[in-house]
Design a protein that fits this description.
single chain, 416 residues, alpha+beta, OB fold (Dihydrolipoamide Acetyltransferase, E2P), Rossmann fold, 3 domains, 7-stranded mixed sheet, 9 helices, 24% helix
């Protein structure tokens, strides 16, 4: 079937004649195979005429691996399209902030073990693409990747469910971009794992090595830590704040752009030293700790109890005494919240803010609400619900945290 790609769908796939087709861009004329008529899903068979927006991808795995679906699109065009999404949703925005690095920007990659001692990323059919070199993290991580593959083949370690003795699931590599250190976490489904022998092969490259078990059928790269060598945490520094990040804790994936994200939030907060700040969905305290020196008090609310402990520990690490964190779901905690606050900062998951949180924020009437989102579409729905409480959009700043993907980070300032 021949179609012309005229736009992108909400997931960043090329859209033509109603069909969504990965690895295609507006201006392409392509031949596709229809995978699902009802869901309007297509697969690229061959390009017939290429869009002028296209670029030559750096990665040899492009078009097969599902990691960087926009790598065939010129970076300047990626930025225009992402900025255009925000402007279409909200009517206006500041120019998008490009990532300081287009490649090797990620501080974490979760690789999956595949059959025949392969290790890499999944494609659109959930099959493992054996990666020789990934352009998302660093050259050092690619060396680690190569040695892990050699080790599994040498020791005849098989993927979980590949054989009756197969145990391997994931290898998670994390690294500091502003602090020179890294961490490797091997996840198995069961059994034993010779961590000491692997450490002999990686000790010149890695600062810490862990082994974790995830027996669940769920395909998740977290588990119960069984053992570690040298260290079980990563260190990173954003601005003036140093973070100690346990192996399985969430942290902003693009450290370089996270610095600009925090500067944007500081600018929007316009702190003078006397404000009380409430941060909802606070994680390990990345935002709140970065604001603490300019505020009277910062309180974080986070559902994950381990993340709350991490935030408090990082406050102590930096000598920050006016930061505290509470464990609980935002929608539960805010209904009983007794403190008054001048500024509210929300950084929710992709689905957005719970309706109880929106209602309570409207009732509390903080002077400023700063909404940080990785999904501008759900952000738009929430903003429309906050505006009737007497707020208006004072500033919009999109940022590109994930070059060569359709993902957009967007920060909105609401004032009364």
């Amino acid at each position: 079937m021949k179609i012309e790609i005229t736009a992108f769908d909400e997931r960043g796939k090329g859209l033509g004649d109603g069909y969504s087709v990965p690895f295609t861009y507006p201006g392409d004329i392509v031949e596709i195979e229809v995978l699902n008529h009802k869901k309007k899903l297509g697969q690229l068979l061959k390009p017939l005429s290429l869009s002028p927006l296209r670029a030559t991808p750096a990665c040899k795995h492009f078009g097969v691996c599902g990691g960087c679906s926009w790598q065939g699109l010129k970076y300047v065009e990626q930025l225009k399209i992402k900025e255009g999404v925000v402007k279409k949703l909200f009517g206006d925005s500041s120019p998008i902030l490009p990532s300081p690095k287009e490649y090797f920007y990620r501080n974490r990659m979760d690789f999956a073990f595949g059959p025949d001692f392969t290790l890499g990323l999944k494609n659109q059919w959930d099959r493992i693409v054996d990666i020789e070199k990934c352009w998302l993290m660093s050259e050092e991580s690619n060396k680690i990747l190569s040695r892990l593959k050699y080790f599994t083949q040498w020791k005849k370690l098989y993927k979980w469910k590949e054989t009756k003795d197969g145990v391997l699931r994931h290898a998670v590599i994390r690294e500091g971009k502003f602090v020179n250190n890294n961490l490797v976490n091997i996840l198995t489904a069961k059994g034993e794992f010779d961590l000491e022998e692997l450490w002999e092969k990686l000790s010149d490259l890695a600062r810490g090595l862990l082994w974790s078990i995830n027996p669940s059928p769920a395909d998740r790269s977290v588990g119960d830590i069984q053992k570690f060598i040298s260290r079980d945490y990563l260190e990173e520094k954003l601005g003036e704040v140093r973070f100690r990040i346990p192996a399985q804790s969430f942290f902003q994936t693009n450290s370089y752009q996270a610095v600009n994200l925090l500067e944007t939030i500081k600018k929007f907060a316009a702190l003078t030293g006397g404000e009380k700040v409430l941060e909802l969905y606070s994680g390990v305290g990345t935002i709140g700790l970065s604001l603490a020196h300019q505020a009277e008090e910062v309180i974080g609310v986070e559902e994950n109890e381990e993340a709350v402990k991490d935030a408090v520990n990082n406050a102590m690490l930096n000598g920050i005494t006016n930061y505290s964190a509470l464990a609980g779901r935002a929608e539960d905690m805010i209904e009983e919240f007794e403190y008054s606050f001048d500024i509210a900062i929300v950084d929710p998951p992709r689905p957005g803010i719970h309706k109880k949180v929106i209602a309570k924020l409207g009732e509390a009437q903080p002077d400023r609400i700063i909404y940080v989102s990785c999904n501008p579409h759900s952000q738009k729905v929430d903003i429309d619900k906050l505006l009737p409480f007497g707020y208006q959009i004072a500033a919009i700043q999109p940022l590109d945290l994930f070059p060569h993907t359709p993902h957009i980070e967007n920060v909105i300032l609401l004032t009364k």
